[in-house]
Amino acid sequence: MPATTSAIKEKDYLTVAETAQVLGMTRQGIYKLIYRGNLVAAKLSSRLTLIKRESIDKMLDGSPYTKRETNEKKTISEFYTRAEIREKFGVKDSWIYKVVAENNVPKTILRGKAYFSKSHIDRLFSARKENPEITEWYSVEDIQSKYGMTLSAIYSLVSKIGIPKRKEGSKVYYSKYHFDVAKGAKSAEDVEFISVADAMEKYLLTRDQLYHYVKRYKITKLRCGKHVKLNAKELAELFNPKIEL
Protein backbone atom coordinates (compact mmCIF):
# COMPACT_ATOMS: atom_id res chain seq x y z
CA MET A 1 0.00 0.00 0.00
CA PRO A 2 1.49 3.42 -1.02
CA ALA A 3 2.73 5.61 1.82
CA THR A 4 0.66 8.65 2.71
CA THR A 5 1.95 12.10 1.79
CA SER A 6 2.48 12.95 5.45
CA ALA A 7 4.53 9.78 6.00
CA ILE A 8 6.68 10.53 2.95
CA LYS A 9 7.46 14.01 4.27
CA GLU A 10 9.18 12.45 7.29
CA LYS A 11 11.56 10.28 5.23
CA ASP A 12 15.11 11.28 4.28
CA TYR A 13 15.38 8.63 1.56
CA LEU A 14 12.64 8.07 -1.00
CA THR A 15 11.98 5.37 -3.56
CA VAL A 16 11.36 6.27 -7.19
CA ALA A 17 7.60 5.80 -6.70
CA GLU A 18 7.60 8.07 -3.63
CA THR A 19 9.65 10.71 -5.43
CA ALA A 20 7.17 10.57 -8.31
CA GLN A 21 4.35 11.09 -5.80
CA VAL A 22 6.09 14.07 -4.21
CA LEU A 23 6.82 15.77 -7.54
CA GLY A 24 3.54 14.81 -9.18
CA MET A 25 5.31 12.91 -11.94
CA THR A 26 5.38 9.38 -13.32
CA ARG A 27 8.05 6.84 -12.36
CA GLN A 28 9.32 6.97 -15.93
CA GLY A 29 9.71 10.73 -15.63
CA ILE A 30 11.80 10.31 -12.46
CA TYR A 31 14.07 7.76 -14.17
CA LYS A 32 14.61 10.18 -17.04
CA LEU A 33 15.73 12.86 -14.56
CA ILE A 34 18.16 10.33 -13.07
CA TYR A 35 19.54 9.26 -16.47
CA ARG A 36 20.07 12.89 -17.49
CA GLY A 37 22.01 13.58 -14.31
CA ASN A 38 19.44 16.09 -13.01
CA LEU A 39 18.60 13.97 -9.99
CA VAL A 40 21.20 11.99 -7.99
CA ALA A 41 20.13 8.47 -7.02
CA ALA A 42 21.68 5.38 -5.47
CA LYS A 43 20.92 2.06 -7.17
CA LEU A 44 21.19 -0.51 -4.36
CA SER A 45 19.86 -3.44 -6.37
CA SER A 46 18.01 -4.20 -9.60
CA ARG A 47 14.75 -3.48 -7.77
CA LEU A 48 15.70 -0.76 -5.31
CA THR A 49 16.76 2.79 -6.13
CA LEU A 50 16.82 5.42 -3.39
CA ILE A 51 16.88 9.20 -3.70
CA LYS A 52 17.94 11.61 -0.96
CA ARG A 53 15.37 14.26 -0.19
CA GLU A 54 18.16 16.85 -0.27
CA SER A 55 18.89 15.76 -3.85
CA ILE A 56 15.34 16.68 -4.81
CA ASP A 57 15.68 20.07 -3.09
CA LYS A 58 19.03 20.67 -4.77
CA MET A 59 17.58 19.88 -8.20
CA LEU A 60 14.65 22.26 -7.65
CA ASP A 61 16.87 25.02 -6.27
CA GLY A 62 19.09 24.70 -9.31
CA SER A 63 16.21 25.15 -11.75
CA PRO A 64 14.49 28.42 -10.78
CA TYR A 65 11.71 29.66 -13.03
CA THR A 66 12.76 32.54 -15.19
CA LYS A 67 10.67 34.46 -17.66
CA ARG A 68 11.60 33.54 -21.19
CA GLU A 69 12.62 36.53 -23.20
CA THR A 70 11.00 36.85 -26.59
CA ASN A 71 13.64 36.45 -29.27
CA GLU A 72 13.36 38.13 -32.60
CA LYS A 73 12.80 35.64 -35.39
CA LYS A 74 16.01 34.92 -37.21
CA THR A 75 15.94 35.40 -40.92
CA ILE A 76 16.52 32.13 -42.76
CA SER A 77 18.70 32.78 -45.77
CA GLU A 78 20.07 29.33 -46.68
CA PHE A 79 17.94 26.53 -48.09
CA TYR A 80 18.25 23.05 -49.58
CA THR A 81 16.32 21.65 -52.50
CA ARG A 82 15.05 18.07 -52.16
CA ALA A 83 17.69 16.95 -54.63
CA GLU A 84 20.44 18.47 -52.46
CA ILE A 85 19.06 16.73 -49.35
CA ARG A 86 18.91 13.39 -51.17
CA GLU A 87 22.49 13.77 -52.37
CA LYS A 88 23.97 14.91 -49.04
CA PHE A 89 22.20 12.52 -46.67
CA GLY A 90 21.35 9.59 -48.93
CA VAL A 91 17.62 9.60 -48.11
CA LYS A 92 14.48 9.15 -50.17
CA ASP A 93 11.83 11.79 -50.87
CA SER A 94 9.31 9.92 -48.69
CA TRP A 95 11.62 10.21 -45.68
CA ILE A 96 12.30 13.90 -46.40
CA TYR A 97 8.58 14.66 -46.44
CA LYS A 98 8.07 12.70 -43.21
CA VAL A 99 10.84 14.54 -41.31
CA VAL A 100 9.81 17.94 -42.68
CA ALA A 101 6.16 17.42 -41.70
CA GLU A 102 6.86 15.99 -38.22
CA ASN A 103 9.31 18.78 -37.31
CA ASN A 104 7.66 21.75 -39.03
CA VAL A 105 10.81 22.56 -40.98
CA PRO A 106 10.60 26.11 -42.39
CA LYS A 107 10.35 26.16 -46.16
CA THR A 108 9.73 28.56 -48.99
CA ILE A 109 8.22 28.07 -52.43
CA LEU A 110 9.92 29.69 -55.38
CA ARG A 111 8.48 29.25 -58.86
CA GLY A 112 6.61 26.17 -57.71
CA LYS A 113 9.71 24.52 -56.20
CA ALA A 114 10.11 23.85 -52.46
CA TYR A 115 13.25 24.90 -50.56
CA PHE A 116 13.91 23.79 -46.96
CA SER A 117 15.84 25.56 -44.19
CA LYS A 118 19.48 24.41 -44.36
CA SER A 119 20.14 24.74 -40.61
CA HIS A 120 17.03 22.75 -39.67
CA ILE A 121 17.75 19.96 -42.15
CA ASP A 122 21.40 19.70 -41.05
CA ARG A 123 20.33 19.36 -37.42
CA LEU A 124 17.59 16.80 -38.06
CA PHE A 125 19.63 14.61 -40.40
CA SER A 126 22.96 14.89 -38.54
CA ALA A 127 22.36 11.52 -36.85
CA ARG A 128 22.36 9.92 -40.30
CA LYS A 129 25.85 11.12 -41.20
CA GLU A 130 28.53 8.55 -41.78
CA ASN A 131 30.18 7.17 -38.65
CA PRO A 132 33.89 8.14 -38.84
CA GLU A 133 34.83 5.03 -36.81
CA ILE A 134 33.75 2.78 -39.70
CA THR A 135 36.82 2.29 -41.87
CA GLU A 136 36.08 -0.98 -43.73
CA TRP A 137 33.33 -1.26 -46.30
CA TYR A 138 31.83 -3.86 -48.63
CA SER A 139 30.72 -3.13 -52.16
CA VAL A 140 27.68 -5.03 -53.42
CA GLU A 141 30.05 -7.18 -55.48
CA ASP A 142 32.11 -7.99 -52.36
CA ILE A 143 29.00 -9.18 -50.53
CA GLN A 144 27.83 -11.28 -53.47
CA SER A 145 31.25 -12.89 -53.73
CA LYS A 146 31.60 -13.62 -49.98
CA TYR A 147 28.04 -14.60 -49.08
CA GLY A 148 26.53 -15.59 -52.44
CA MET A 149 23.56 -13.29 -51.90
CA THR A 150 21.26 -11.88 -54.57
CA LEU A 151 20.77 -8.12 -54.89
CA SER A 152 17.26 -8.34 -53.45
CA ALA A 153 18.54 -10.37 -50.46
CA ILE A 154 21.27 -7.78 -49.79
CA TYR A 155 18.87 -4.83 -49.95
CA SER A 156 16.35 -6.65 -47.76
CA LEU A 157 18.95 -7.37 -45.05
CA VAL A 158 20.38 -3.85 -45.18
CA SER A 159 16.91 -2.34 -44.80
CA LYS A 160 15.78 -4.75 -42.07
CA ILE A 161 18.92 -4.51 -39.92
CA GLY A 162 19.77 -0.86 -40.63
CA ILE A 163 23.36 -1.43 -41.75
CA PRO A 164 25.34 1.85 -42.14
CA LYS A 165 26.17 2.78 -45.72
CA ARG A 166 27.98 5.45 -47.68
CA LYS A 167 27.91 6.60 -51.28
CA GLU A 168 30.73 7.31 -53.69
CA GLY A 169 29.22 8.66 -56.85
CA SER A 170 26.69 6.09 -58.01
CA LYS A 171 28.18 3.23 -55.95
CA VAL A 172 26.98 2.29 -52.47
CA TYR A 173 29.15 0.64 -49.81
CA TYR A 174 28.03 -1.10 -46.60
CA SER A 175 29.81 -1.34 -43.24
CA LYS A 176 31.90 -4.53 -43.24
CA TYR A 177 31.69 -4.94 -39.46
CA HIS A 178 27.91 -4.50 -39.28
CA PHE A 179 27.30 -6.79 -42.25
CA ASP A 180 29.52 -9.54 -40.85
CA VAL A 181 27.80 -9.30 -37.47
CA ALA A 182 24.38 -9.45 -39.12
CA LYS A 183 25.41 -12.59 -41.00
CA GLY A 184 26.92 -14.15 -37.88
CA ALA A 185 30.34 -14.31 -39.52
CA LYS A 186 32.10 -12.01 -37.04
CA SER A 187 33.02 -13.12 -33.56
CA ALA A 188 31.06 -11.38 -30.83
CA GLU A 189 33.97 -11.70 -28.38
CA ASP A 190 34.67 -8.51 -26.45
CA VAL A 191 31.29 -7.17 -27.59
CA GLU A 192 28.39 -7.40 -25.19
CA PHE A 193 24.91 -7.74 -26.66
CA ILE A 194 21.63 -7.23 -24.83
CA SER A 195 18.21 -8.65 -25.65
CA VAL A 196 15.44 -6.37 -26.89
CA ALA A 197 13.37 -7.12 -23.78
CA ASP A 198 16.27 -6.25 -21.45
CA ALA A 199 16.97 -3.02 -23.36
CA MET A 200 13.30 -2.02 -23.12
CA GLU A 201 13.35 -2.58 -19.37
CA LYS A 202 16.71 -0.88 -18.82
CA TYR A 203 15.90 2.28 -20.74
CA LEU A 204 12.14 2.37 -20.01
CA LEU A 205 11.14 2.27 -23.67
CA THR A 206 8.37 0.57 -25.61
CA ARG A 207 9.39 -1.80 -28.40
CA ASP A 208 8.44 0.79 -31.04
CA GLN A 209 10.45 3.52 -29.29
CA LEU A 210 13.50 1.24 -28.95
CA TYR A 211 13.44 0.22 -32.61
CA HIS A 212 13.08 3.88 -33.60
CA TYR A 213 16.38 4.67 -31.85
CA VAL A 214 18.03 1.49 -33.17
CA LYS A 215 17.17 2.44 -36.74
CA ARG A 216 17.89 6.17 -36.39
CA TYR A 217 21.29 5.73 -34.70
CA LYS A 218 22.24 2.50 -36.50
CA ILE A 219 22.73 0.38 -33.38
CA THR A 220 24.49 -2.88 -34.26
CA LYS A 221 22.19 -5.91 -34.26
CA LEU A 222 23.09 -9.56 -33.80
CA ARG A 223 20.56 -12.14 -34.96
CA CYS A 224 20.41 -15.28 -32.81
CA GLY A 225 17.96 -17.63 -34.50
CA LYS A 226 14.57 -15.90 -34.36
CA HIS A 227 15.75 -13.37 -31.78
CA VAL A 228 17.64 -10.10 -32.17
CA LYS A 229 20.19 -8.72 -29.70
CA LEU A 230 21.57 -5.19 -29.59
CA ASN A 231 25.05 -3.83 -28.96
CA ALA A 232 25.01 -2.91 -25.26
CA LYS A 233 27.91 -0.44 -25.49
CA GLU A 234 26.32 1.51 -28.35
CA LEU A 235 23.02 1.72 -26.46
CA ALA A 236 24.79 2.89 -23.29
CA GLU A 237 26.64 5.60 -25.22
CA LEU A 238 23.36 6.71 -26.82
CA PHE A 239 21.32 7.00 -23.64
CA ASN A 240 24.31 7.70 -21.36
CA PRO A 241 22.62 7.00 -18.02
CA LYS A 242 24.29 8.89 -15.16
CA ILE A 243 23.52 7.32 -11.78
CA GLU A 244 25.84 8.24 -8.93
CA LEU A 245 26.20 6.00 -5.91
Tell me what you see in this structure:
The protein has 245 residues and is α+β, with helices and mostly antiparallel strands. Helices cover 44% and strands 18% of the residues. The protein has helices at residues 5-9, 16-23, 27-35, 53-61, 82-89, 93-102, 118-125, 140-147, 151-161, 176-182, 196-203, 207-216, 232-239; strands at 13-15, 42-43, 49-52, 79-80, 107-110, 113-117, 137-139, 165-168, 171-175, 193-195, 221-224, 227-231. It has a three-stranded antiparallel beta sheet. It has a three-stranded antiparallel beta sheet with strand order 4-6-5. Strand 2 and strand 3 (49-52) form a beta hairpin. It is flat and about 70 Å long. The chain starts with a helix and ends in a 6-residue tail after the last helix.
Key features of this structure:
3-stranded antiparallel sheet; 245 residues; 18% strand; flat; alpha+beta; 13 helices; single chain
